[in-house]
Design brief:
Largest sheet: 3 strands, antiparallel
Strand content: 5-15%
Number of helices: 4
Oligomer: single chain
Number of domains: 2
Distance between the termini: 81 Å
Order of helices and strands: HHEEHEEEH
Length: 132
């Protein structure tokens, strides 16, 4: 028999004695036990979530510039993972200017360019700075 059932049984016994103050205290105790039961369940869920996260974290490895999971082709955003421990897949497409292809994070909006695109972007930025 659980704690809540025991309290209810005691409350039923107290009702027979017509002690209103004692009955009120039993009801308060019952509410406290229910609150503790809910808190315990929330904590159990949090532990399960953290265990899943830890297990997932062990499957990740860093391959510049992304984090990757062993059995997945789509990489994860390094910014989201390192700052908030959020595993967010990046999406491949055109950058905002419509020029180069890039990986973009739907959460933090960072863009990651393939190595060739990065080299050309760095070169063009250098030319702009020299022309100033």
């Amino acid at each position: 028999m659980g704690v809540v059932e025991n309290i209810k049984e005691v409350a039923d016994l107290v009702k027979k004695f017509n002690d209103i103050d004692l009955n009120r205290r039993i009801l308060n105790l019952e509410n406290e036990v229910l609150d503790l039961s809910r808190d315990k369940r929330r904590l159990e869920e949090k532990v399960e979530e953290l265990e899943r996260s830890l297990k997932f974290q062990k499957t990740l490895y860093f391959c510049e510039p992304f984090y990757r999971a062993k059995a997945e082709a789509t990489p994860y955003c390094p910014s989201c993972w390192e700052s908030k421990t959020l595993a967010v897949h990046v999406l491949f497409g055109r950058d905002e200017a419509g020029g180069s292809s890039a990986w973009k994070c739907p959460s933090c909006k960072h863009e990651y360019y393939p190595p060739r695109s990065r080299k050309s972007l760095i070169a063009s930025a250098s030319l702009v700075q020299e022309g100033e």
